[in-house]
Design goal:
The protein is of the alpha+beta class and 409 residues long. The chain is 58% helix and 11% strand.
Length: 409
């Protein structure tokens, strides 16, 4: 009877002390959180959930220390109850530490939303929880079987090969996560492109084992963290931070439309405001060269091939360069040019290489579209044509023309 009364009193005392400690912690924490000099980290650590977990440690502590004073309790029962109480204490301490890690992670995520340059610590928090769980499990089992934890650790050492096999991906992913974070290769919010796994979008989560990508079609691609170190990926953060996004697109010109310009055509093109200074200086240079050549070799001056002349493609290329430099939405402090590429079976490519003054996707596409709309529409002014393969209607027109010629003949 005295034993039952002693146990009941001990349990009642344990839970009364828990309520008192919880009330005291929450009251004191409320004052500390509202203090003017309280930091955000302190507010995160003094969260009500963390303090509630701390109060949960009290009952098991009271039972494991007070079980010895219960009258007429057999030694074996006292030992068992004490070991179970110690195991519960270890469990509650582990839960408290995990709650602290959750508070730290929440603070880090709040900073991520305010400042994208902050690095995510989610993988480190998850690794910390994993280590806490392993250590707490080993200590709890050792206490329950009344053996030293070192004995269990020595047994785990013999199973190290099996453990490394089981946790292979976790170990690889943690190592990759440390390298990604330490070298600042990837952050939450970065635009990541990894074609081999079909990922092209923003990084929304970086965990211990996985990295989640929200693709531009709103699908989610989950990549094992270790693959980011074993395979290559493209991070567009540098483009975003530079403030300029590259335009690199070619306009394919029909090679058959390339020719020399006549004097009348040069006069017509001279009315284009951007092109007039170029034509004036270029014609002066060509005239001076041709005059010198005619003086030195008058018998060869009648051959067109011996004299310098303006071509429609060269003049067009000069116009494109001038147009790009005058465009208000292109960066003048970055590479800005139009260049002629090697002619192929699909025409002669004229490539525009420039950077817009914005990285916003819609604005970038609008600027790029406006530029090429203008460049394609003005081709006929220079006597040029864009290259394209014959369509079905082109074939029909050619067949009809052949039929008409055959009938006429």
């Amino acid at each position: 009877m005295q034993t039952a009364a002693g146990l009941a009193a001990l349990v009642a005392l344990a839970y009364v002390l828990r309520a008192i400690v919880r009330f005291g912690l929450l009251k004191a924490a409320s004052r500390l959180r509202n203090a003017p000099n309280a930091t955000n980290w302190l507010r995160a650590l003094l969260d009500d959930r963390v303090l509630t977990k701390a109060a949960q440690v009290v009952p098991s502590l009271v039972i494991q220390t007070g079980i010895v004073v219960v009258p007429h309790l057999p030694l074996m029962v006292s030992t068992v109850v004490r070991n179970v109480a110690i195991a519960v204490t270890v469990l509650q301490v582990a839960r408290l530490l995990m709650a602290v890690l959750d508070g730290v992670l929440q603070r880090n995520e709040d900073r991520l939303q305010a400042d994208q340059s902050t690095r995510s610590i989610k993988s480190y928090v998850q690794l910390g929880k994993l280590l806490i769980t392993l250590v707490a499990g080993i200590v709890m089992v050792a206490v329950l079987i009344d053996r030293s934890p070192l004995i269990l650790l020595s047994g785990l050492g013999a199973m190290s090969a099996v453990l490394m096999l089981v946790f292979k991906d976790t170990i690889l992913s943690f190592t990759a996560g440390v390298q990604l974070s330490g070298n600042d290769m990837l952050r939450v919010g970065d635009w990541l492109q990894m074609d081999q796994v079909g990922a092209d979008g923003a990084v929304v989560d970086m965990a211990l084992n996985t990295v989640k990508i929200r693709n531009w079609d709103n699908t989610i691609t989950t990549i094992p963290t270790w693959r980011l170190m074993s395979d290559s990926f493209k991070n567009w953060r540098g483009m975003s931070e530079s403030g300029g996004r590259r335009i690199k697109r070619s306009l394919r010109i029909d090679t058959e439309s390339i020719r020399f310009l006549s004097e009348a055509e040069i006069g017509e093109l001279g009315r284009i405001q951007l092109l007039a200074p170029y034509l004036h200086s270029k014609m002066a240079e060509i005239t001076a060269y041709n005059y010198d050549f005619s003086t030195q070799a008058p018998d060869m001056a009648d051959e067109v091939v011996n004299l310098r002349q303006l071509t429609n493609i060269g003049t067009y290329r000069a116009y494109v360069n001038l147009y790009l430099r005058a465009h208000p939405k292109l960066r003048k402090d970055m590479t800005l040019m139009a260049r002629m590429m090697e002619a192929t079976a699909e025409g002669t490519p004229l490539e525009v290489y420039a950077f817009t003054d914005t990285t916003a996707w819609q604005e970038y596409e609008a600027i790029q579209g406006d530029i090429f709309d203008h460049l394609m529409a003005i081709l006929p002014e220079f006597g040029l044509r864009a290259f394209q393969y014959p369509s079905g209607s082109d074939v029909k027109i050619a067949l009809r023309q052949n039929e008409v010629r055959a009938l006429d003949s």
